[in-house]
């Protein structure tokens, strides 16, 4: 696709028929954690594009030495349409006071890797610029990346060299899956929604939430989506047996309710914590043994995370009413039990720092990330500002919708 005479680097599209082994070798060379500290590593299960292939449009590029054909870097990207703001409806048939979403075409960069022996040669920058070319050619107005706040090399590349600006700092909340089941409050009734009803509820109540995917139906109908669950007060008129659809529910909702969906990451990738001492591993194992032998005590055991493990991701978290956070807690307990049945070690979600329902999500601080840094860039000045203006300058809202296809 192109060549840099100084670095003698060719950036081209990933070819799974001949690049798979080389790409896996680069991934392994990049998996070097800080000495003496715990580090999280990802096993893509032999599919380098697993984290983007469920998006509407995606691309993976590799950086190759022109002389030896050695692959020394890779980058992934995808494009979708999401909510970037809201405005009042001008449709006379609808409620003119009800806000409607403003959509934009958004690109996402992830999985940037450069072999340790070829860093500081401009390879990462070259791959980012080439990926942005593809974004622009396909009509994307904005691009964003997510990185750890303390990953200074990544932050510097995107903010100093690529023109991205710090945008949002959501929290990644991770909770272990214990050897015992968690009790679900007997004051709550849980209803599993059909995908069509889940789509209707999300579009009517949450489509104006920032980053809401316009193709939410594709997400909910994906084989990795394990279901959408609604929590309502026990004793109200809504049950699994009497459920008659989201339209009726939204016309006559209870005072408080909550909803979330579950995504199966275990079949896409596995994680592994490395760098733990033998003492720490032994202590963790002892908690699991005690929990398994005495499940009625509901001990807070540490799952097996020092070997490859799977997780479930909770997305589409929302609700209304004074008890919504308590209903979220009940939904999270149900999700924990689903993950236990599915052989997962953790459940995770990502929410805005100011999310009101965050207090209902159980998590272990040691496993979680207080601020996951999202950086954004406007790709072209020829796009119309529309009703939202330049999205990169907009203040954060209370909530965001995190697409599970990109977690």
TrEMBL record:
Under Pfam families, the record lists: Acetyltransf_1
Q: Which CDD domains match?
A: NAT_SF
| Domain N-acetyltransferase span(s) in chain numbering | 9-183
Keywords from the UniProt entry:
Acyltransferase, Transferase
Q: Which Gene3D superfamilies match?
A: 3.40.630.30
Q: Does the keyword Repressor apply?
A: no
Keyword Transferase recorded? yes
GO terms for molecular function, please?
Answer: acyltransferase activity, transferring groups other than amino-acyl groups
Instruction: Name the domain of life.
Output: Eukaryota
Its family remark reads: Belongs to the acetyltransferase family.
Q: What is this protein called?
A: Probable N-acetyltransferase HLS1
Q: Which gene encodes it?
A: LOC110409576
């Amino acid at each position: 696709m192109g060549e840099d005479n100084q670095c003698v680097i060719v950036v081209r599209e990933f070819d799974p028929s001949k690049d798979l082994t080389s790409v896996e070798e680069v991934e392994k060379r990049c998996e070097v954690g800080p000495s003496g500290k715990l580090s999280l590593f990802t096993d893509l299960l032999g599919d380098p594009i697993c984290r983007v292939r469920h998006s509407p449009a995606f691309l993976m590029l590799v950086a190759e030495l022109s002389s030896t054909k050695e692959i020394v870097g890779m980058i992934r990207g995808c494009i979708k349409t999401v909510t970037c703001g809201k405005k009042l409806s001008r449709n006379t048939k609808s409620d003119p006071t009800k806000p409607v979403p403003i959509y934009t075409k958004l690109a996402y960069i992830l999985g940037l890797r450069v072999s340790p022996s070829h860093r500081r040669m401009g390879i990462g920058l070259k791959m980012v610029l080439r990926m942005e070319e593809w974004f622009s050619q396909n009509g994307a107005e904005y691009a964003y990346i997510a990185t750890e706040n303390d990953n200074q090399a990544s932050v510097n590349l995107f903010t100093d060299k690529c023109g991205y600006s710090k945008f949002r700092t959501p929290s990644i909340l991770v909770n272990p899956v214990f050897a015992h089941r968690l009790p679900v409050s007997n004051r709550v009734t849980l209803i599993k929604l059909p995908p069509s009803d889940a789509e209707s509820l999300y579009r009517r109540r949450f489509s104006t939430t920032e980053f809401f995917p316009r193709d939410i139906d594709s997400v909910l109908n994906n084989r990795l989506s394990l279901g959408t669950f609604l929590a309502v007060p026990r004793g109200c008129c809504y049950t699994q047996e009497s459920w008659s659809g989201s339209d009726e529910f939204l016309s006559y909702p209870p005072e408080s309710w909550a909803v979330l969906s579950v995504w199966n990451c275990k079949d896409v990738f596995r994680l592994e914590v490395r760098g733990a001492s033998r003492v720490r591993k032994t202590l963790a194992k002892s908690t699991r043994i005690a929990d398994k032998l005495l499940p009625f005590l509901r001990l807070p055991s540490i799952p097996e995370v020092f070997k490859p493990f799977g997780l479930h991701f909770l997305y589409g978290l929302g609700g209304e009413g004074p008890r919504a956070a308590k209903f979220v807690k009940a939904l999270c307990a149900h999700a924990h039990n689903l993950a236990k049945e599915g052989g997962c070690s953790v459940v995770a979600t990502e929410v805005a720092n100011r999310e009101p329902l965050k207090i209902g999500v159980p998590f272990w601080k040691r496993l979680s990330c207080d601020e996951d840094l999202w950086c954004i860039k406007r790709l072209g000045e020829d796009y119309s500002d529309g009703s939202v203006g330049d999205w990169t300058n907009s203040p954060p809202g209370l909530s965001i919708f995190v697409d599970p296809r990109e977690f």
